[in-house]
Design brief:
The chain is an alpha+beta fold. Helix content is 41%, strand content 20%. The protein has eleven helices and ten strands.
Length: 345
């Protein structure tokens, strides 16, 4: 093996690369000159039989030839790709004189329509809108709401924890706790709209993310009659003057007594049908009188102050109002879904 043989291999390879017309030819050239069975690689296997000084010189030369061929191949591959792309572009000419496709506009998502309308209703009643963090401390999300560690009520709100003391809020009630802590001893009338998170099945009526508008009133001489009157007014403004509500006993750890609030079915007017399962009513929200423990932990004397709280699911109200059958449709960004509400909203 000598240097002249290596130069001959290099020149032969470079010449064939220059004459190549397509990618297939380049693949064949690479196999001939750079594969394990090629003449160049065979020379590499004989280096071990040479003296050290000659072995070093020949090894460097073989690597140099190999690198030259490889670089020439890469450069030619790029040239052919650009040439093939140019030919493709010439064949696929676009007639820019054709009219462009128009952009479809969907319409306002019914979720935001309902959210804004609920807020407007309560602003008209003199409520203040308050906001708070979605990543919340366990202290505000549970403990100040009469749900201590290991309380079974925590199982009702299976949560996304970041660590043992921080989680994604499971309701907007922490905003109420923060407001009471800030305004301790002063009257409160607030609503708290926002996103909440719970580990839940994703199906037509459940989602790991949903939105609430919670309300809180704290003052002297507040009773459950004030709660009923407030929610009755809300229902009539939201769903129509003919709608009625009823209160059913329930349980929430932060209110006592607690109630579930139902509204007369829009489909049957309260007579009973398959939609309301024959009851004439459909559940829309929950509420109750603020638990004395919650008042006390947040700086209010329960012997002097009382209050009521309620929570409204925004998606649930929108589903009832517009006949939407799947909560996931609010979040899919499907313009076809939004088209349905252009005339209704």
């Amino acid at each position: 093996m000598d240097i002249s043989k290596l130069n001959e291999i290099k020149e032969k390879a470079i010449e064939r690369i220059k004459d190549a017309k397509n990618s297939d030819e380049l693949v064949e050239i690479r196999n001939v000159f750079l594969s394990k069975k090629s003449e160049l690689m065979s020379m590499m296997s004989t280096l071990g039989q040479m003296e050290a000084e000659l072995r070093k010189e020949m090894g460097q030369k073989i690597n140099e030839v190999k690198m030259n061929i490889s670089n020439a191949l890469d450069k030619k591959v790029q040239e052919i790709k650009e040439l093939e792309l140019q030919k493709t572009l010439e064949k696929e000419v676009i007639d820019i004189s054709l009219p462009a496709k128009g952009k479809e506009s969907g319409g306002k998502n019914p979720f935001f329509v309902v959210r804004d309308e609920i807020i407007d209703i309560f602003l008209g009643m003199g409520y203040e809108v308050m906001d708070g963090p979605e990543v919340e401390l366990d202290h505000y999300n549970f403990e100040l709401l009469n749900i201590p560690q290991d309380h079974p009520a925590r199982d009702m709100q299976d949560s996304f924890y970041i660590n043992e003391n921080v989680l994604l809020r499971t309701h907007t009630s922490p905003v109420q706790a923060r407001t009471m802590e800030k305004k301790a001893g002063k009257p409160i009338r607030i609503i708290c709209p926002g996103k909440t998170y719970r580990r839940d099945d994703d199906d037509a009526t459940h989602s790991h993310q949903f939105a609430q508008i919670e309300g809180l009133v704290v003052d002297k001489d507040i009773n459950i009659g004030h709660l009923k009157a407030t929610l009755e007014l809300f229902a009539k403004k939201m769903f129509g003057e003919k709608r009625e509500i009823r209160l059913r006993p329930s349980y929430f750890p932060f209110t006592e007594p607690s109630v579930e609030v139902d509204i007369t079915c829009a489909n049957c007017g309260g007579k009973g049908c398959n939609i309301c399962k024959g009851t004439g009513y459909i559940e829309i929200l929950g509420g109750g009188m603020v638990h004395p423990n919650v008042l006390k932990m947040n700086g209010y004397d329960p012997e002097v102050y009382s209050g009521f709280a309620f929570g409204i699911g925004i998606e649930r109200v929108a589903m009832l109002r517009y006949g939407i059958d799947d909560i996931r449709k609010f979040y899919t960004d499907d313009v076809r879904f939004l088209h349905q509400f252009k005339k209704k909203i």
